[in-house]
């Protein structure tokens, strides 16, 4: 089970671009790459709430601004986004070898599905979820439980792969191990004080862990 942003795909350029399109259209200050990095991980509502200036963070303003952001993202879902080195080949290899693959993200679900299809091909992942409506948001364990129930898989067979403390907490809330990749938006610092079961520095290491060639 993979996180998307910062794990499979480097999406921060497009997140920043669409935030700034939104802020500019409303006459609010725009944000740098570094500022944008501090906004992510907790879903689009929190992303926009953090991006809005002080005094403009009430629920109605956040929700209205979020709709503009989502509309902008629909039009600019993959301008700067790229897959991390070796990720596409890794996913294809795992799929060909019979592993059941899924994506669980705090990104709006329609954008998660669009990007997964663009980079990995439709049908590569047996389950894809994101946020929106009444969908649970990581780190709630329901994000993992619903995926496993849908796929008919067991917790004891799952490895969760992510790049942040939110991913580690999600995995541990669901009672499954987490492989923390260090190539994400914050490197090892992204895990804060929440330590993954495994640190992974490249896709070769991740493949070996998944296939049982290494266990620590």
What can you see in these coordinates?
The longest helix has 17 residues, at 59-75. The strands form 3 sheets. Strands 5-6-7 form a 3-stranded parallel β-sheet, sandwiched between helices. It contains 9 helices and 7 strands. Helices cover 45% and strands 12% of the residues. It has helices spanning 12-26, 33-39, 44-51, 59-75, 87-96, 109-120, 142-151, 165-173, 203-211, and strands spanning 9-10, 82-83, 102-108, 127-131, 160-162, 178-181, 198-200. It is globular. With 216 residues, the protein is of the alpha/beta class. The mean pLDDT is 95. Strand 5, helix 8 and strand 6 (178-181) form a beta-alpha-beta unit. The two termini are 19 Å apart. Helix 2 packs across helix 3 (44-51).
What tags apply to this protein structure?
216 residues, alpha/beta, three-stranded parallel β-sheet
